[in-house]
């Protein structure tokens, strides 16, 4: 970083404005100072020839009024070039009368150099030349009256013209640079203003995006909790109710009654554990210590025991660790498919196939149950209105997969979940 202080655009604008104000004060003060000095010296040491003191002072006062009218009272006229040319010609005329009357008014002749900037383009150099003639005449003591006096006059005029012309030249270049700086600063100020407006708009947009992100996060979390509740509490309670109903029907058969009660207790404990893990967003306990094929096989075995339906699990391809979210999705899909079979299908046989392919892993669940019309409402009374399949679709779609359901009344049901074969370290 540079060691020089950095100024803001506003400060640069203020500095340029202050410089313009100082120049304006200089233009307004110099003519009056020159007139005052000339009048004072003329009064103290009048010229041998020329007007008497009173007319001389009246001409000086008229010159002051001329300047005040055009410069002080109407500063906005400075941009009207034609009007400023008229003013400058009058300024030169007053200067010529006063210089010819008294050389002391050579101090006033310098006002022509200062106000030459009011002329357009190269006309200011013509004004400087005319002012140099007046200044040289005053410095030479009046109009040349001899050859030697004429030579002195020419030297004085050339000197004034050279110095004032050089100063005017550099002043013109400086004015152009000043105008360019002013234009650039104004453009920069406008760009900063637009940038500030854009930043304010971006702040509003950022706040809106944050609000939308929060809403989306709340919605996603609600959907996640709905799926978890369905996959844990809802299914667990359904299984408990089924086992308790079966126990009620087997009151006369002690062994069957005890088996159903034990199954209900086991389901209650499993459901409570899974519900707690779901709240903490922890992957299912079944996947904590075993691989996915083993977890699905154990899930199927327990389901087959409870529902007294024959179920088989087969694995094809090279079984390998997958991303935790992918494994949870496939396990929950198997759980939901088996739950639907137990509740609605009235099947005698279920087959699950877990297929590991190069880029895709597929879980197929088939049963020989009553089936249903996939285009209409669930045909089984007391169903969940299809939310189980909806939750399954959301889970599968959440990891970039697809869910397909094939069924027809009397023809059984086939559910297929295909998900990307993301490795265990994938994000």
TrEMBL record:
Gene3D superfamilies: 1.20.5.1930, Histidine kinase-like ATPase, C-terminal domain (3.30.565.10)
Cofactors required: [4Fe-4S] cluster
UniProt enzyme class: transferase
Keyword terms: 4Fe-4S, Coiled coil, Cytoplasm, Iron, Iron-sulfur, Kinase, Membrane, Metal-binding, Transferase, Transmembrane, Transmembrane helix, Two-component regulatory system
Chain coiled-coil ranges: 174-208
CDD domains with a match to the protein in the record: HATPase_UhpB-NarQ-NarX-like
Gene Ontology CC entries for this record: cytoplasm; membrane
Top-level taxon of the source organism: Bacteria
Keyword field contains Ligase: no
The Histidine kinase domain, residue ranges: 330-423
InterPro entries tied to this protein: HATPase_C_sf, HATPase_dom, His_kinase_dom, Sensor_HK_TwoCompSys, Sig_transdc_His_kin-like_C, Sig_transdc_His_kin_sub3_dim/P, Sig_transdc_His_kinase_ChrS
Catalytic reaction list: ATP + protein L-histidine = ADP + protein N-phospho-L-histidine
PROSITE patterns in the record: HIS_KIN
Protein name, as recorded: Oxygen sensor histidine kinase NreB
Species for this entry: Micromonospora costi
